[in-house]
Amino acid sequence: MKTQQFVVIGLGRFGSSLALQLVDMGCEVLGIDRNEDVVDSMSEMLTHTVVADATDEDSLRSLGIRNFDCGIVAIGDDIQVSILTAILLKELGVRKVVAKAISILHGRALEKLGVDRVIYPERDMGIRVAHQLVTPNLLDYLELSKEYSIVELNVPGCLNGKTLSELNARTRFGCSIVALHTANGILIAPTAMDRLKAGDIMVIIGSNDNIARFEDEVVNVNEEG
């Protein structure tokens, strides 16, 4: 599987937290900030770091921005710079653009510009957002400890109609499906004979490694296929 490449513009508290988590998850991350001291402090922790003005189209173009899978505008309180940067990322052809908003009005402006996802840091902490960006099928993520998590995943079409017994997640992957969100409501502690339906949501608990293996071997593989 190809290593995902992210560019994070703005290495303040939120941007640096998100960038470091993406690196921990095996992604390549280019960090950009105007502040040379900030960039220097992150240089050994990220894949690449650059001191640059994100509103300078030539600078962004020279960095090959359009080749990144996702561009994240994590600029602090300067709404004008945030909006201009988002516009440039879209115009330069970045596949997915995510931007931090500091107000509802700021968020609406970003949405009107075609930003793929607007993040409000008060509601979306950096670690949770990182997991959701790396795994498109991941709807929500809760870290129980450094080793264990609870996640919500869409049921892919390949599992439609299968019983939990046929999936056998506990034996095959060491993780458990503890609830299902269905059209008829939430099913807590489903039985082995309960069937999965495409579009339903699985609530899974397990070690981070086992959940990642489940995603890679069942959900993501079939999504790519």
Question: Mind sketching the topology for me?
Answer:
Layout: E1 5-9, H1 13-24, E2 28-33, H2 36-42, E3 48-51, H3 57-62, E4 70-73, H4 79-91, E5 97-100, H5 104-112, E6 117-119, H6 126-134, E7 138-143, E8 148-154, H7 164-167, H8 169-173, E9 176-182, E10 185-188, E11 201-207, H9 208-224
Parallel strand pairs: 1-2, 1-4, 2-3, 4-5, 5-6
Antiparallel strand pairs: 7-8, 8-11, 9-10, 9-11
Helix pairs in contact: 1-6
Protein name: Trk system potassium uptake protein TrkA
InterPro entries: NAD(P)-bd_dom_sf (IPR036291), RCK_C (IPR006037), RCK_C_sf (IPR036721), RCK_N (IPR003148), Trk_Ktr_HKT_K-transport (IPR050721)
Organism: Paenibacillus brasilensis
Walk me through the structure:
- The structure is a single chain.
- The chain is built from nine helices and eleven strands.
- It has helices at residues 13-24, 36-42, 57-62, 79-91, 104-112, 126-134, 164-167, 169-173, 208-224, and strands at residues 5-9, 28-33, 48-51, 70-73, 97-100, 117-119, 138-143, 148-154, 176-182, 185-188, 201-207.
- A six-stranded parallel β-sheet has the order 3-2-1-4-5-6, with helices on both faces.
- A hairpin with a 4-residue loop joins strand 7 (138-143) and strand 8 (148-154).
- Helix 1 packs across helix 6 (126-134).
- The model has no long low-confidence stretch (mean pLDDT 86).
- Residues 136-220 form the RCK C-terminal domain.
- InterPro entries: NAD(P)-bd_dom_sf, RCK_C, RCK_C_sf, RCK_N, Trk_Ktr_HKT_K-transport.
- Pfam families: TrkA_C, TrkA_N.
